[in-house]
Amino acid sequence: MKKVSVIIPVYNGERTIERCLKSVKNQTYSDVEIIVVNDDSSDRSANIIENSLYDFDNKIIVHRKRNEGVEIARKTGIITSHGVYITFVDADDYLEQDAIEKMVNAMEC
Asked: Among 103, 102, 104, 100, which residue's Cα sits nearest to residue 34?
């Protein structure tokens, strides 16, 4: 099984990030690494991220000290990742439970 890194850039996503993280944590594909790049959010995003992922072992949380935008946040996630495959999910999106499994199966056919 090949590791999949899911990179989630976040800026002031307190209203949606919990649902996003839950959808990634609950994937049917088991070898998922969650990388959250908090781009200096001024809301409660940082606390929600920490609380949502406290029980998820395969995570990397980066708290940036300066807001530099989604492009830099994504690059930070790529540099930090350990996955064979990388995908991006925005903080206001969510994945169907089998989305990563389907993506991996499609790439390996």
From this structure: 100
